[in-house]
Amino acid sequence: MNVQLEETAEKKCAIFESTIKLVRERGFHGSPMSQIAQEAGVATGTIYHYFASKDDLLIEVFRHCKRQISAAMFRPEEEQLPYPERFVAVWINLVRFYIRRPGVLSFMEQFFSSPYAATVYNKSYNVQMQNEMSVFLQQGLDQEIIKPLDINVITSAFIGTANAVAKRHINGHHAFDEASMNEVVNIIWDGIKK
């Protein structure tokens, strides 16, 4: 890889991670570009070299988070599992990722509760980002492993419970171990399996 490309990737990653950290601590409005730059160890002008505005930065951080979430959920070594086992694995992978990366969970929740979500949903690139989860759930529907439910209902049950479990764990309300995570995901599975 080209040294300049490596430096660019490193700087962007530092900017993304500092944005995630500050948004978790202070929210979108409490995270000015100058503070994001300071936290990332770059000049404010460097951020504007890569991103035209704070809005553009936040949308790119969202895309960055979506890629990380997808990579954590859909692991190649689990692709050959029978569908019910893979469903459990994918859900537990998501919970574990959020427990390891609480800033990403916080960022995503704030993003989806903001006007940015509507902006992203009006862009065609979001279809691609949601596609892997939709394809996975659609496979279960097509193979008649899952009850014929609206995919939005299934997605809400899947993601909503994963977020809730991760938040309860992160906030110290309950330490979810492997057994308790399996209990929760099996409640979901029992509700949607055909």
Structural commentary:
By secondary structure, this protein is mostly helical. The protein contains 10 helices and no strands. It starts with a helix and ends with a helix. Residues 125-129 have low confidence and may be disordered.
Q: What structural class do helix, strand and pairing data support? A: mainly alpha
Q: Unreliable stretches, pLDDT < 50, 5 or more residues?
A: 125-129
Mean pLDDT: 92
The separation of the N and C termini measures 48 Å
Sheet with most strands: none
- The number of distinct β-strands equals 0
Q: Please bin the fraction of helical residues.
A: over 70%
The rough form would be described as elongated
User: Beta-sheet strand percentage?
Assistant: under 5%
Summed up, the helix count is: 10
Secondary-structure element string: HHHHHHHHHH
Using only CA atoms, what is the Rg? Answer: 18 Å
